[in-house]
Amino acid sequence: MVPHALPLLVATDTAELLRGTTIAVATVVVLVLAIGVIAFVVLFRRGGDRGIRGTSSQSALESRAASLLVTLDDRVREADYELGFAVAQFGAAASRDFASALAEARGQLTEAFRLGQQRDDVSATADHVRRRITLQMTALCEQALAKLDRFDTAFTERRRSEVGAAETAQQLRARLTAVRLRQTTAQDTVAELATTYVESAVKAARHHLDTASTTLDESETALDAAAPGISPTGVNAVTDTLRAAATALHRADRAVSAAESAVNELAQADAAVTRMRADSASDLLEARVARETAPDPTSGARIVTAIAANKRALEQTAPASGVLHDPFEQLALLGDAAAELDTALATARNQQQRFEHARAAYQGTLVAARSQISVVHELVGRSGASARARTRLAEAERQLMIAEAETDPVEALDAIRRSVTHARDADALARY
After folding, report:
1. Would you call 24 exposed, middle or buried from its count of C-beta atoms within 10 A (0-12, 13-18, 19+)?
2. Alpha carbon 95 to chain centroid distance?
3. Which domain holds residue 182?
4. Contact 165, 222 (CB under 8 A)
5. What would the pLDDT profile of 388-432 be if each residue is shown by its tens digit?
6. Which of 260, 281, 302 is the last residue of a domain?
7. CA-CA distance, 87 to 235, in Å (whole number)?
8. 288 Cβ partners below 8 Å, 6+ apart?
9. How many domains does the chain have?
10. Is-above-0.90 flag for pTM?
């Protein structure tokens, strides 16, 4: 296991501040749609139906909405880094309003992504519906960007007169030391895992650690550059340099955390593969009985096909001594085969049996969904991605939340499988 970083003042303040705004995020996500609708109605009351009957083509409107979505998504990611520096420089209390504004902006971004998914699902012939949704997305993005712009300006002005540079630099040095220790420990763990897993399975963790190494060096270089200019009376010349150091350090911290998560996901995936293999073997016994009592030839043929798919999945995921493996790839094989068998046996199972099989399949699929979503997040953060890729990613996250909150195991399994599907689509679009 990778040890946690030593508790530090700034990290603690940031965590407490983020926990304090988590409830606000949930509330904002629920209310943003209502706010957007009200704003939309006000717009039309002021200008009649000119918004829908204007001269702008739907293609131009959708292009602008896509651009705003990408811009806002990137700004929210950057604002996360900015919040960490604001807490370090001004304290948690002084940064609380910024944290709340960021929570609201993130909620508006989430709603804009949901609307984008809804628009993509609308028939191409429903132009008036697509236009209305696109305008709502645009309004939400513009409101959120304006909110973040106001705080950027406010922080810039405040930093011009900030005189706590010495304390800020000291806190950043302490955090730098702690993150480097975590990075070193994670590197040792990944090197050990490379003797068990194929390179593709540890590639994400390696990439995160490489990113951490680079950004830690950048942070240390910036801190060294700021040191000569820090004095009790004159700090204006180093504020921007300290901000660069804090931003790089925050990126490094996140990269190490991502590497630690990737390591934990490997262990979870391995355990899920073991469970799913046992469940698949049991399901095959059930399927063979159902094949003999199928109500019609079509149902029987579907069961036969599903049995063959599950047998292949079991063969391809069988453990072999000394052979490196990829548990995420194995989960995908077993999950797809299980879904095919579930469909084939749906009519033969009673409700209790469906619940039991759904609960068994859920955990493995949950690990696969979280892993896929994590990969796409890294892709977007590393090289950017289109609005469509980000929209699919947002929908995958939304379906994951639905699955985790669902009490009906069958509905939860359906939702988590939808999450996997959207995450795969997002991955393909992000790499395109």
Report:
1. middle
2. 24
3. 165-260
4. no
5. 999 999 999 999 999 999 999 999 999 999 999 999 999 999 887
6. 260
7. 18
8. 307
9. 3
10. no
